[in-house]
Write a structure and sequence with these properties.
Chain lengths: 369, 702
């Protein structure tokens, strides 16, 4: 049987990340691209630039799951992440783009990976004029960033919390940004973010939960809005939000579990809706949901592992949606995360609700000395 | 990202891709510049449209266009009609490139909510998209949005789903939308949409899908939904309680922890007071059980002093099972007297289901309580021997059913005669008809969904008949057939065998627990020579039965000693309702973590527990991490460490917090835990700290 080509995947991610960082610099200063990067500057990567923040989260989490997070330049990544923060408090998908809650979560998750959620606190204390308070941290970059922000008079986390909270609507739902699109994906993001920041009390959790429950369907799954069709990605968001708020009693675990386990098709892969093709990314959406409701043993573990491993590019590294398709960071992350949920040897455990390594989540949410 | 082949690209392709990329990059930079400079002239707008046509997912450009629309509309002499039409055109251009673009669909909604466009226009556009991709959920969502915005009737939309299904039944999206529309119509227009008639018609429709291609999943879930609509009622009712109505309880002293006598009832002495649980078990999770919705009358306990607790894993004040402890003061007890206790509920509508339906059937129960004078030999509370689960300590229960006073005479709670029966004739007729049809289907061809549906139909029928049956001899008539179907399914569809195995276990337990006669076959007398007491313990032994799931707990509320060892249990969810349990054997199962033992936290009377030979500590993934009370799900107060123990070493507490949360409120006397990967000297020392009442840990007397 094929094994996980972990080293190749690490190299693949580092290459993609490096290229992206050079490219994003170019979006600000129009110098010509160095020759070696020009070749890689394919249409596919430019078209994804608006969600660079998601890409950073996918790539870096994969590295952490494979025990290789230390190979990236942490300071460079963090300073780039902080440059994507908008003055409203939220984060954009890339520098110069508009803020959206989709990217705010990725930014918070990336900071969490590096144990740097205090970046957000530090800026707050700077705002309050307590510059000395954070000098105990020897991270020069933090101080640098904080001073820069202070000098520019930028607002920050103080507004990040209230920015997320302000996206909650009267019916408990959440909008993705100031333009008002409503989706249970945004409910999950708001809840996940605020829980990681210990600020869940800033929103009306009960109303948020009730809205998600209104999106429950005949098959036990959940849709984007009330009446929306069940979809594995959407189910992950809703089940995840209910898990984080301790509200899984609203889920019919047997009904949803049956629907989810029937996502496994003959090849062993999982699809996201009935009568659709299997895809590696559903290894995450379906599996994490099955784990949160304790029904993951209802699928065939070995067959799914084989399907994911068959989607690897064994020469260049990376994982694709289906065998022999082109690889990308998104599917590489979901493939590795799926293997983690299947307890594949050599891959760190990932938390099914927060979509971060278990040790990161425990570090944040469990009390320590 | 999806469906692109991995072929190594040819140099000329790379060239072309790079050219496209640099063109797009130039557009993006120019666009961002325009956006930041708030340029909304014609050229800038055209550039953003061009960008979105190539890359509809570039969300900032949609935001920009919204700003531009607002800017243009605010200009004197602006023409809203043409401004908004331009936006609709931009969206259509983007959707042609990618009709799964969230940003594009939302932009259209935004334009529409400004009061623009016509129903006809939107419906024509949707028709085009939905014909091209009948499963596009963006289009379906948009359709619901337009229908609501323009007040299109649900009947018309229902007709549309019929058309779509008749064109091609393999359209899960259409079935889904149908279920949403019908639920609304059944609720709001019951005169025009009588449930009985509508359901029959829907069954006909879905048969076409399932019987044409049994492997196509499109109709599977709709059929299951119809079945649920047929048999379940929204309103909650009480299905079981303890003590059973008409029973006579003898409460004896049980200060010494090991005398977990099963008959008569052991009690809960603390500080000279006797405690006795009253358990209410409903058909679904409900909220609102309290002293104003449940009345308890007795000479001892004042109703208003009772505290009703939901027995559930979450802290939201809802549960299927509820408990309150009656407290008797030892000083006032007259040992020659029998005391009557009366429990009644349903006089007020305060008890409601999670979706707000009030309790339908009122309920009243009376039982007698007698107290046994404390035995002078035992008053010092000395250890009278530990529980050993070896076979040799158990004897067949030989007495007849009438002699066994521990099992309530009637397992299932019968509805009072003056209430309408739970099942109507039309429900039974529908089920019989479906059963016949699926038997026919299976006689023609072996198929998984046929077998599974038949098993579910038979289960539903048995359950329905059970609540309707007014005699005391309840039987599940189709158990053998259902068990055989699940056994077949495990072979037919091995990928999902665990699902069928669990259904098999649940069916088996329904059969075992549905009557006193059946239960007695699994009741044994526990005799241990070390037990000086002459009383016998009755143990329900469900060991070695390949059980993968526990169920039918409503029939087992009376159990005080339970052996579930040598099964395949991963979860014990449901056990939290068994408030009388004092001895429990879970050894040799597949329990993977302490969080899976969360139900035990509710079992305050538990004294003897064996969880040896399980898989605790063996797995990196904890599948019950979010199904227990924990700081991760904000169901445990942030100061949980300070509550309880203070002498515990903090490093150990951080390491074993899951075990701490399960055990901290228990007063275990005996614990077997060997054979789990988590166990080592460090862990044992931790257990001794958090379980000060422990007298025996594995084979060691403390
Ligand atoms: Zn995918």
């Amino acid at each position: 049987m094929v094994e996980l080509a972990a080293e190749k995947h690490v190299r693949y991610i580092i290459t993609v990340e490096k290229v992206s960082y050079s490219i994003r610099k170019l979006t600000c200063c129009p110098d010509p691209l160095p020759q070696y990067l020009q070749k890689k500057d394919a249409f596919e990567s430019v078209v994804m630039e608006h969600l660079r923040m998601n890409g950073a989260y996918w790539g870096l989490t994969t590295l952490d799951l494979l025990g290789k997070l230390h190979v990236v330049d942490q300071d460079e990544v963090i300073s780039w992440v902080m440059e994507c923060q908008h003055e409203s408090g939220g984060f954009a998908g890339n520098i110069g783009h508009d803020p959206h809650i989709l990217y705010t979560l990725s930014a918070v998750q990336v900071l969490a990976l590096f144990d740097k959620l205090n970046m957000l606190d530090i800026e707050k204390s700077v705002l309050e004029g307590q510059i000395s308070a954070f000098l105990v941290h020897d991270d020069l970059i933090l101080i640098h960033r904080a001073e820069k922000n202070y000098a520019l008079g930028l607002r920050s986390t103080l507004t990040l919390y209230s920015d997320i909270a302000s996206l909650q609507n009267e019916d408990g739902s959440f909008s993705g940004d100031m333009w008002g699109e409503v989706d249970t994906r945004f409910s999950y993001i708001a809840i996940c973010c605020l829980s990681l920041l210990h600020q869940l009390d800033k929103i009306d959790v009960e109303k948020a939960v009730n809205y998600i429950v209104r999106c429950k369907n005949l098959d036990g799954g959940f849709g984007a809005t009330p009446g929306g069709e069940s979809h594995a990605g959407q189910i992950f968001c809703c089940v995840g939000a209910l898990a984080i708020t301790g509200s899984l009693h609203h889920v019919d675990k047997d009904l949803l579990g049956w629907w989810l386990c029937e996502r496994q098709v003959k090849s062993g892969g999982l699809n996201g809706r009935p009568e659709k093709l299997p895809d590696v990314c559903y290894s995450w959406w379906v599996l994490s949901s099955l784990i949160m409701i304790d029904r993951v043993h209802w699928i065939d573990r070995e067959k799914l592992i084989k399907f994911i491993l068959d989607c690897q590019d064994l020469e260049q590294g990376g994982i694709s949606d289906r065998p022999d398709d082109a690889v990308d960071v998104f599917h590489t992350y979901f493939g590795v995360a799926g293997l983690s949920l299947l307890e594949y040897p050599g891959v760190k455990a990932i938390d099914p609700a927060y979509a971060l390594p278990v040790d990161v989540v425990n570090r944040i949410l469990l009390p320590h000395d | 990202m999806h469906g692109r082949p991995r072929n190594p690209s040819k140099p000329e392709d790379e060239e072309a891709s790079a050219a496209k990329a640099s063109k797009l990059r130039a557009l993006q930079s120019q666009f961002l510049h325009n956006h930041h400079s708030k340029l909304y002239d014609k050229g800038a707008l055209e550039l953003s449209a061009k960008l979105l046509e190539i890359n509809p997912e570039f969300y900032t450009a949609w935001n920009y266009r919204k700003l531009a629309v607002e800017h243009c509309l605010s200009q004197p002499g602006s023409d809203p009609e043409s401004i908004l039409n331009e936006e609709l055109r931009a969206v259509e251009g983007a959707l042609r490139q990618n009709f799964k673009s969230y940003g594009a669909w939302y932009h259209r909604k935004w334009v529409l909510s400004k009061g623009h466009s016509s129903v006809d226009h939107e419906m024509r556009l949707l028709d085009k998209f939905q014909k091209a991709d009948p499963r596009n959920f963006h289009a379906w969502n948009y359709r619901r949005f337009v229908a609501a915005l323009k007040n299109i009737s649900e009947e018309d939309e229902l007709k549309y789903t019929t058309d779509m299904i008749e064109r091609n039944f393999s359209n899960y999206s259409a079935w889904h939308n149908r279920s949403i529309l019908l639920s609304n119509l059944l609720k709001r227009k019951a005169e025009v949409f009588p449930k009985e008639k509508i359901l029959s018609e829907e069954y006909e429709l879905v048969h076409q899908a399932i019987f044409t291609d049994p492997d196509d999943q499109s109709g599977w879930f709709y059929h299951l939904w119809l079945l649920e609509q047929t048999v379940t009622k929204d309103a909650p009712w009480l299905i079981s309680c303890w003590p059973a109505s008409g029973s006579e309880l003898i409460i004896s002293d049980s200060k010494s922890a090991s005398s977990c006598t099963a008959s008569p009832l052991s009690s809960y002495f603390s500080d000279g007071r006797v405690e006795m649980p009253v358990i209410l078990y409903f058909n679904q999770a409900i909220k609102g059980v309290n002293t104003s919705t449940v009345t308890v009358r007795s000479v001892f306990a004042e109703s208003k002093d009772l505290v009703w607790r939901p027995l559930s894993l979450s802290n939201f004040g809802s549960a299927q099972a509820w408990v309150a402890f009656l407290k008797f003061s030892e000083v006032k007890i007259d040992y020659s007297m029998s005391y009557e206790v009366e429990v009644s509920l349903g006089d007020s509508s305060g008890i409601v289901s999670l979706n707000g339906c009030p309790l339908t059937h009122a309920f009243q129960s009376k039982f007698m309580v007698r107290f046994q004078q404390p035995d002078s030999r035992n008053t010092d509370g000395q250890n009278i021997g530990s529980i050993s689960w070896e076979d040799s300590n158990f004897q067949n229960y030989e007495g007849g059913p009438e002699q066994c006073n521990i099992i309530p005479p009637c397992i299932q709670l019968k509805m009072a005669k003056d209430h309408e029966p739970i099942a109507s004739k039309w429900q039974v007729d529908i089920l019989m008809n479906e059963i016949e049809l699926f038997r026919e289907l299976l006689s023609a061809a072996d198929c998984k969904i046929g077998k599974l549906t038949l098993a579910r139909l038979l289960t539903a029928l048995d359950t329905l008949m059970l609540y309707n049956d007014t005699s005391n001899s309840c039987q599940m008539r189709h158990t053998e057939e259902i068990l055989a179907l699940y056994t077949d399914l495990m072979k037919l569809d091995p990928s999902h065998s665990q699902y069928y195995r669990e259904e098999h276990s649940l069916t088996f337990l329904r059969q075992v627990s549905c009557s006193k006669e059946n239960l007695l076959r699994y009741c044994w007398l526990y005799r241990n020579s070390a037990l000086s007491d002459s009383r016998n313990l009755v143990c329900l032994r469900l060991n070695n039965l390949s059980l993968a799931r526990v169920g039918s707990i409503e029939n087992l509320l009376w159990v005080q000693m339970l052996d579930l060892s040598h099964n395949e249990l991963r979860s014990i969810e449901g056990l939290e309702a068994m408030q009388l349990l004092s001895c429990l054997n879970l050894s040799n199962n597949k329990i993977k973590s302490f969080t899976a033992l969360d139900p035990l936290r509710h079992l305050k009377s538990l004294k003897v527990l064996n969880i040896s030979q399980n898989e605790i500590g063996k797995h990196s993934v904890d599948t019950t991490r979010y199904l227990c009370s924990s700081p991760l799900s904000h169901t445990e107060a942030s100061d949980w460490r300070r509550s309880g123990l203070c002498s515990t070493d903090d490093a150990q507490l951080s390491k074993y917090w899951e075990a701490f949360l399960v055990f901290r409120d228990l007063t275990l006397v005996q614990l077997g835990i060997t054979g789990n990967k988590v166990v080592n000297e460090d862990f044992r020392s931790f257990l001794l700290k958090i379980l000060p009442t422990l007298e025996r840990l594995d084979d060691t007397n403390l």
